[in-house]
Amino acid sequence: MEKVFQNERIKITDEKSINRIVTKNIFILILGQLVSLIGSSIYSFAMGLYILSTTGSGLYFSITIALGVIPKIIFGPISGVVADRVNRKKMIITMDLLSGIVVIALFALSSFDSLRLIYIYISTFLIATCTIFSETPMEASIPNLVDEKRLTKATSLNQAVLSISSIAGPSIGGVVFALIDIRLFLLINGLSFIFAALMDIFLDFKIKNKIHGVDQKTNQENDVKHTFFEDLKEGIAYIKSQTWLVVLGSFTVFLNMFFIIGITVTVPYVAVNVWNLPSNQLGILEAMFPLGMLIGTVITFLLPEAKSVYKRIMICIAVASIGMLFTGILTCNLIITLDTISYFTISIILFIILAICSVLYNIPFFVSLQKKVPNDMLGRVRSVILTFITGLTPVGAVIGGALVDIVSPWLLPMVCGIIMVILTIIMSRMKALKAI
């Protein structure tokens, strides 16, 4: 049952006022996200370097990576349910503040005691947990932060921040580790999280309400209180009821896993063991994917808003599938034999194309989520899908790592590409997708 307050209905119709408040919101959103995400990226890279330099152990380093991923798998669905139940703005601010407190606490501990591994492990787990409980409500709130015609651009800018943090984080982290005492870095990093939380305070989470004249007070009060599992079950049931969401969500999950198996694991293995690429060229090659994502984000931002994103999505899926298939051909020395520079150059082009397709597919998909999924269910739906994607990432890495030592490496991208081409043909014939 809904209780709607009719006495305080405010609606902004002036275009200049709408432009002003939306632009302000986007600026604050991007600045806060930039500080928070780059801070997280720098922290992860610098802590990894610290562990490697002090212990020399790959195992201790890999534990840190695992502790940064595990919370996303465990708490992904939980964060979605919580984001749909509580005040999202307060949740985001609280999580950024907690991240800052955790890092500053680590700084304080390291000042009185040595920077022990157990301290780093605990703080890494806690920060990753705070991050997932901050990212989920933030992503679910984007439709309420801007007007509908700028939803794709806001999502594109947010994706650009993710790409920039992926590129800049390790670079800045390496410089920070070399030039600044690790304890001073922790203090600065902790303060950056707190700054991000302060920026979030100025975000207006009711832009959509104000533009469409929805009540400024809470316009829904549920008389029936659902349990956590009932809310989660409701979100999963909604996903099952939407054919387009089941198809695209499933393809996104499998696309990510196939990419891990066919590209992320296979190409570096072939580059080192077959093409004999030096480490500096391998590093450049690995940086091409986040660079391609940034290029794809700019393209998405510049493209005009489309009434239907079906064609764009299908074209991107087709190009990505063919790109994966061509990677298999490139890595097969029975078909193609080139010099090291040629392999390196072609791989760079392939990585950039695949990354651009990934962004041009993902942004329209998640914008469609934001437009079509009810706001009070968006957190759950998004988190369930992302949990499957995150959960299958290590599965794909393990499968790819095991297979690359057993079969000819070129078979992995070849088979993954063929499967993706078949799935693309099947998807292109589904009427439910043509409506998005």
Compute the gyration radius: what is it? 23 Å
The proportion of residues forming helix, as a percent range, comes to over 70%
Measure the end-to-end span: 30 Å
Overall geometric form: globular
What proportion strand? under 5%
Low-confidence stretches: 1-8, 215-224
The mean pLDDT is: 80
How many domains, as an integer?
2
Please state the second-level CATH architecture of the largest domain. Up-down Bundle
The CATH topology annotation of the largest domain reads as: Growth Hormone, Chain: A
Helical segment tally?
Answer: 14
Which structural class best describes the helix and strand composition?
mainly alpha
* CATH class wording of the largest domain: Mainly Alpha
Task: Report the major sheet.
Answer: none
Following the backbone from N to C, one meets helices and strands in this order, namely HHHHHHHHHHHHHH
The total beta strand count reads 0
Structure commentary:
This protein is mainly α and 436 residues long. The protein folds into 2 domains: 15-212, Growth Hormone, Chain: A, CATH 1.20.1250; 228-435, Growth Hormone, Chain: A. 80% of the residues lie in helices and 0% in strands. It has 14 helices and no strands. It has helices at 15-55, 58-85, 88-112, 117-145, 151-179, 182-201, 207-212, 228-241, 243-273, 279-302, 310-330, 340-372, 375-403, 411-428. Helix 1 packs antiparallel against helix 2, helix 5 (151-179) packs antiparallel against helix 10 and helix 8 packs across helix 13 (375-403). The longest helix is centred in the N-terminal third of the chain and has 41 residues, at 15-55. The radius of gyration is 23 Å and the shape is globular. The relative contact order is 0.14.
